[in-house]
Design brief:
Number of strands: 9
Distance between the termini: 32 Å
Order of helices and strands: EHEHEEEHEHHHHEEHEH
Helix content: 25-40%
Shape: globular
Length: 263
């Protein structure tokens, strides 16, 4: 099996990103995967000014495009690898973590961690319920398996494993640019309604649901949201996702203090 781990870190890399990216590169070596870090944007996806609900400041400060969608460049490698794994640049991988590729067998199209399946603390569980209502309710034609205490079913796009042979039929020979230009994705890019601050997360969850993909629910330890779970849970995690910089020591720039919190 030929495997690839793909990351994106465009622009100036912070201490936090540098700390996390190095851990992922080391992990790729541990599990026998190739590693690619995209440092320069290729897609430069931008909202349509005529229809966008996003404030111009939210995307123009990055050079006039939305960097989050650069992760979809991973599909450029669909023909060269059996499995692809995209990992956000703000995720730290604990040394010695199990091989994530073995968690997604060939019966699955992709694998990801569903947020409501994490052992969330009470505060973030409430936020997850509210978030899912706002994000998923507009997509009324699909069953989001609602639960009053945990909200709707969506996965976190910070870590996704794709089985290439299965995904090809959904990509329809499109380049990453052609894929992102699908009309059905434009409302997500434009940030219509509650998607104003949305990344690629709900867009990809919607795509998987629309195509009836067979999605493996990965163990939460492969995308543990820092501060959304209690400290003793964090220390059991394989992949730690620092998704809220404001809750980190000096917004993630004090790496020494950060290490104390996760080890």
């Amino acid at each position: 099996m030929k495997k690839l781990i793909f990351q994106v870190a465009v622009g100036q890399i912070s201490k936090l990103y540098d700390f996390c990216v190095k851990s992922v590169e080391d992990y790729a070596k541990e599990v026998g995967a190739d590693y690619i870090l995209l440092r320069e944007p290729k897609l430069k996806i931008k909202p349509n000014p005529a229809t966008s609900n996003r404030s111009k400041a939210s995307w123009q400060k990055y050079g006039g495009y939305l960097p989050i969608y650069e992760k979809e460049n991973i599909f450029e490698h669909i023909n060269n690898y059996d499995q692809l794994c995209v990992i956000d640049a703000d995720i730290w991988v604990r040394p010695g973590s199990p091989d994530i590729f073995t968690q997604v067998d060939q019966t699955h199209d992709l694998g990801a961690v569903f947020e409501r399946e994490l052992p969330l603390n009470k505060k973030y569980r409430r936020q997850t319920v509210d978030y899912s209502k706002k994000q998923l309710t507009p997509l009324k034609e699909y069953d989001w398996k609602w639960n009053p205490s945990t909200g709707g079913e969506y996965f976190n796009s910070g870590v996704i494993v794709y089985n290439s042979a299965n995904m090809k039929k959904y990509l329809r020979n499109e380049t990453p640019s052609e894929f992102m230009k699908r009309p059905e994705f434009q409302p997500f890019v434009d940030g219509v309604g509650a998607w104003k601050w949305q990344t690629d997360q709900i867009m990809l969850t919607y795509w998987a649901k629309k195509e009836s993909m067979n999605v493996k629910h990965l163990d939460w330890k492969y995308n543990s949201l820092f501060k959304a779970v209690d400290p003793h849970i964090t220390k059991q995690s394989h992949f730690i996702h620092f998704f809220m910089k404001d809750l980190l020591p000096k917004k993630g720039e004090n790496i020494e203090e950060l290490i104390k919190l996760i080890q």
